Amino acid sequence: MIMINLKPLRLLFILLLPSLLYAQPYYFNHYQINEGLSNNAVICSMQDSQGFLWFGTKDGLNRFDGNNFKHFDATQSGKNSLGGNNIISLKEDFRKRIWIGTDQGIYCYDPVDEQFRLLSKQFENADVPVIVTDQRKRIWFISNGMLYCHDLVSHAIQQFTKSDLYITSISCTKNGTVFFGTPEGKIFQIGSSGKPALMLDFQAKYGPKDWFSIEKIMENRDGDLLIGTSKTGVYSYNFKNKSLKSILGPDRLHQFLYVRDIIQPNDHEYWFATESGLFIYQIASGNYINIQKEQENPWGISDNAIYNILQDKDEGIWLGTYFGGINYYHKNNSIIEKFLPQDRPGSLKGSVVRIIKKDINHNIWIGTENGGLSKLDPKSGYIQNFSDKQGNLAKNNIHGILPIGEVLLIGTFVNGLDIFSPKLQKVIYHIDRNSNVSTSDLQSNFLFYLYKTRKGEIMAASTRGLYRFDLEKKSFHLIDNVPEYMFYTSILEDKKGNIWVGTWRDG
């Protein structure tokens, strides 16, 4: 005899179903103040050459080793510390030093002596929101809206724009071209001549509208530019035919889309960090999904305001949010799919799952103790719910399910047995100890488990006895070669045809 654990699985159930055909799920782990992060507003992120992850927050710099966070902030003693705690940009140079942009200047961190040094007094109180590197051992950065270049070998600093041309974003491509964008929707390039030249003007193309502030410029794997804007989403610019097209914006979404960051994690997808959550865009088809915060989902994103995206060396993806800290995704975390009780169509209703069974049509039936009966379609992932409130069931507390042909036998908590028709979507027959069936031996209305043997015999485990059930006559017959008054919880037939039963407390 085997004693089974009666503790129900609460809040979710998990299924390992290779045949599921609908879109893959995305599950995120969260790192916030409680996990050691200095502040939940994560403005920037990067991974260094040693594998450490760095996160800039509104209250200091964080280095993460996979287990613990180490904090660096302006309150640390000594002259070689950060000048401000609002960390807004990060970049590693070829010497493995970390450049940190703050609202109080640009600093260089040397991992050997763990000291921070201000680049120059002229940037001591500057706002430095973007830092990039090029192949010529230089860093490019924005300081108070102006573009600068710092040669890491000669230590020379060159200013490329003046205060009359405000800069919002920078990108350096594989061929060494530097692009920068403005709030007016203009993109300039700095090529071999070393002088900025206007390459693209959104207002000239689309009209004088305050919609095109360039927030992100990124070169994709094909050498095209992806351009994220403050209202009109993402555009793609092709250098060969000099064409600009919208790939995700108000024309498809019917709303403005503020894009803060873009990555291409593989050949097939773009990931967009936006003020409206995470967008995952399929390059070949143009299809996309929008992942937003769900209050009932502990594995969803923690905040819709996503400021940065980082792909690490192990293909994990890190999202920095403004209110919800860090969200981490890896495809290996989605091997097992989770189904949560949520207040939306197509979601599970019950939070205490007792039994899961598959019928002859490959539908998955879920019995819960507080939400009735649910049917999962493995092809679509859609869940249909049946409850006493809808009139489909007599009671919502379900313990046993047994698919027999085109019907389901449902064992309930103190309400006997229901025969449910999936086609009619309702109970078509009810049997309990008070039913007018003269041949029935049923002594308990709490039917804990239902089982069908290889010979087709239906067995029912109850809190008072083990029974055979005659579906044709709708009657229960007590099995008298086991103790009559035990609480039976489980039934199993072995390879030799022996029947094993488990009980509550009695083995």
Question: Layout of helices and strands, plus pairs?
Answer:
Elements lengths: L8 E2 L2 E3 L12 E4 L10 E6 L5 E5 L2 E5 L4 E4 L14 E6 L5 E5 L2 E6 L4 E4 L12 E3 L4 E6 L2 E6 L5 E3 L9 E4 L5 E4 L4 E5 L5 E6 H5 L7 E6 L5 E5 L4 E5 L4 E6 L1 H4 L5 E5 L5 E6 L2 E6 L5 E4 L14 E6 L5 E5 L4 E4 L7 E3 L12 E7 L5 E5 L4 E4 L6 E4 L11 E7 L2 E6 L4 E5 L4 E6 L15 E6 L5 E5 L2 E6 L4 E4 L9 E6 L5 E5 L4
How would you describe this structure to a colleague?
It is a single chain. This protein is mainly beta and 507 residues long. Among the domains are: 30-167 and 305-323, YVTN repeat-like/Quinoprotein amine dehydrogenase (Methylamine Dehydrogenase, Chain H, 7 Propeller), CATH 2.130.10.10; 341-503, 7 Propeller (Methylamine Dehydrogenase, Chain H). It has 2 helices and 45 strands. The strands form 12 sheets. The chain has a 5-stranded antiparallel β-sheet with strand order 1-32-33-34-35, with no helix packed on it.
Q: CA-to-CA gap between the ends? A: 5 Å
Which fold name is given in CATH as the topology of the domain at 341-503?
A: Methylamine Dehydrogenase, Chain H
Q: Report the CATH architecture of the domain at 341-503.
A: 7 Propeller
| Principal-axes shape call | elongated
How can the largest sheet be summarized? 5 strands, antiparallel
Q: Total helix count? A: 2
- What would the average pLDDT be, to the nearest integer? 92
Helix content: under 10%
Instruction: State the strand order across the main sheet.
Output: 1-32-33-34-35
Structural class, by secondary structure, is mainly beta
Kindly provide the name of the CATH class of the domain at 341-503. Answer: Mainly Beta
Number of strands: 45
Beta content comes to 35-45%
What's the name of the CATH homologous superfamily of the domain at 341-503? YVTN repeat-like/Quinoprotein amine dehydrogenase
The stretches of 5 or more residues where confidence is low (pLDDT under 50) are 1-22
Q: Could you tell me the radius of gyration in angstroms?
A: 31 Å
